[in-house]
Design brief:
CATH superfamily of the domain at 2-93: von Willebrand factor, type A domain
Distance between the termini: 21 Å
CATH architecture of the domain at 2-93: 3-Layer(aba) Sandwich
Radius of gyration: 15 Å
Number of helices: 4
Helix content: 25-40%
Largest sheet: 6 strands, mixed
Strand content: 15-25%
CATH class of the domain at 2-93: Alpha Beta
CATH topology of the domain at 2-93: Rossmann fold
Length: 164
């Protein structure tokens, strides 16, 4: 899971909505005893918070403290996530992997990007009245499934990652 926590995600309640989705995902992962990896992209660099461990109450504590600020080290985070996924596939080849990216897609430049090594869903958190659509472009570049966070039915994000 890759979470964009840059300053732009504070606008129009985007971070609050993203936190609600994350809480549902964490609860679902806990019930399923699933392992998670959580990478936060905010400030100057991406930071790993959780790597391949079972979901626990610690994640909810982090979520309560999650703020947003600074730049968007999203490209660095995508590189780190891709590298980690490839290493994890070598160590645990039978593990089912999926990547959830929560971002508004606000990057200075969008370079050519390769798809990530597992099924990926980009959940667009941009909630401004006039939307730039940068997250959709990022999803296309990554060959990821795309959904807007406002299109999720309550309770649907943690179970299936699908819109109704």
């Amino acid at each position: 899971m890759l979470v964009d926590a840059s300053a732009s995600t504070r606008r129009h309640g985007a971070l609050t909505r993203a936190k609600g989705v994350l809480a549902e995902v964490f609860d679902s992962a806990y019930r399923q005893r699933a392992r998670l990896a959580v990478l936060q992209a905010g400030g100057r660099e991406a930071q790993w918070l959780w790597q391949g461990r079972k979901a626990s109450a610690e994640l909810h504590h982090w979520l309560q403290e999650l703020g947003a600020g600074g730049g968007t080290p999203l490209l660095d985070a995508l590189q780190q996530a891709g590298d980690w996924l490839l290493r994890r596939q070598r160590v645990k080849p039978h593990e089912r992997q999926r990547l959830l990216i929560l971002t508004d897609g606000r990057l200075r430049d969008l370079p050519a990007l390769a798809p990530l090594p597992c099924p990926t869903l980009l959940l667009d958190t941009e909630r401004a009245p006039i939307r730039l659509g940068l997250a959709r472009q990022l999803a296309q570049a990554l060959q990821a499934d795309y959904h807007h966070i406002d299109d999720l039915a309550p309770g649907a994000s943690g179970r299936t990652w699908r819109t109704p």
